[in-house]
Input
Amino acid sequence: AVVSTQSTGATVILGSNGFVWVGPHFIPEQPIEAISMTLRETIARLGNVIRALAAYGVQLFDTIILTGYDISLKYKVKELLKPEVMEHIAQESYEHSQHQTL
Output
């Protein structure tokens, strides 16, 4: 599955083999441009959110990744690797997804 986050400029690919790729959104026939610092931080943020969700056994799918991303915005990118922050992001994302399915 491909999670394209147009608003952030990044793309997440959830492979059927369990691998996850996070990178800049690109259009195949256009030249590749330099990646800005803002986009690098967005890619790192998405990667850290995915690490947090996976560390706490939360199933990865598009809406929960985007929810986790939104929740993570109150933290600096480097703070997202702290165990208590990872737990908070995973817990809040999971709870939000449960309320959406009711």
Notes: The mean pLDDT is 90. Residues 6 and 74 are 20 Å apart (CA to CA). The beta strands are 2-5, 10-14, 20-24. The helical segments are 37-55, 62-72, 83-101.
